[in-house]
Amino acid sequence: MNPYPLLRPALFSLDAETAHHLTLNSLNTAHRLGLLALTTPQPADDPREAMGLKFPNPVGLAAGLDKNGECIDALGAVGFGFIEIGTITPLPQPGNPKPRLFRLPEVQGIINRMGFNNLGVDALIENVKRANYRGILGINIGKNAVTPIEKAADDYLIGLRKVYIHASYVAVNISSPNTKNLRQLQGGDELDALLGQLKTEQLKLADQHGKYVPLTVKIAPDLDAGQIREIAALLVRHQIDGVIATNTTLSRDGVAHLPHGHETGGLSGAPVREKSTAVIRALAAELDGALPIIGVGGILNGEDAVEKIRAGAALVQIYSGLIYRGPALVSECCAALKNR
Q1: Could you identify which of 73, 173, 184, 260 might form a hypothetical disulfide with 142, taking C-beta atoms 3.0 to 4.6 angstroms apart as the criterion?
Q2: Rounded distance, CA 143 to CA 227, Å?
């Protein structure tokens, strides 16, 4: 039995951020009591290989749901092929003023301007150490809001060094629209410099720890063909291991007329699906298999997941779809991808 359709009206009656924290706490409680195993269908094995890692299935959790790694074991029990936690910053920060998270149920969308609210990288690492989960764990790193954009690389290097031995892969978030000027790091010269420093540090850490941890970069859906071409060339030049496409969009096409549709922040869920898939398709054409794409953005059902793979993604991630569909979405996407 899937209890989520019964629970969703009560959750949606609450402020979105309150419901978010209540959901994570409830997941942890359900896991401790052994209830998740009884109520969540487990996907069949569908192993995939990417970035030198073996994934038990191709459906992962996108960053943002569990910023501090407080729910790793419970999320692992849902059946994800991999989990990505964060975005985490070197120092704790409260994020942007509330309210900062808004549902658009008419279109199955969400707008957030959270602003990398998190407890800091050291707190996340302690949570990772306490977790029993032994699956593939991505850790998504960002920069603190108080760090000038010209010093952004310093924050990413701190994050990379600290999480390196605890992560299966590290994701570099340069595409959130909710940290001032962050997206300019996707530009040619700035991205070139950042990737160069990160790659050098990755190789040093691999030698130091005797373990190679893949490095991925998360990009925005609001990129034109020239920007996608330039980013793809830099990812290949610096031998980055993977790319996550995409983050949330600044576009308000089709939602501006809705309640909360005018709120500032990044729009996710169904409204970003087509933009995300278009970026994946263009990126896949430019990369020509040089590195894998993790497709994320607007996956609300199994066919949406298949669409991302057909566009060129090797793996997919979900987040907003979980808010509208619940944990059963994981096994539905896995089944659709296995049977396509």
Answers
A1: 173
A2: 22
